[in-house]
Design brief:
about 70 residues, mainly alpha, extended, O-acyltransferase WSD1 C-terminal domain-containing protein, O-acyltransferase activity, O-acyltransferase_WSD1-like, O-acyltransferase_WSD1_C
């Protein structure tokens, strides 16, 4: 492993939001097909890179030890 590589090391975390459909289908694979089409569209959108950058910004500004309202009094 070279010390001066230009690639980033470590875990990268991104997320996408998917709606859940609870409609019963006659074909059980119809849900899988619909979800695959939706995920393929979202992969081409800018949602994942923007959510990653927003998460990185929040972590750089607030840090990993910020507690968002889960403190017990």
């Amino acid at each position: 492993m070279k010390n001066k590589t230009k690639t980033r090391w470590g875990n990268q975390f991104g997320y996408i939001l998917l709606p859940m459909y609870l409609k019963k289908e006659n074909d059980p694979l119809e849900h899988v097909r619909r979800t695959k089409v939706m995920v393929d569209k979202k992969k081409l959108s800018l949602e994942a890179p923007f959510s990653y950058r927003l998460g990185a910004l929040v972590m750089s500004l607030l840090g990993p030890k910020v507690n968002f309202g889960t403190q017990k009094i």
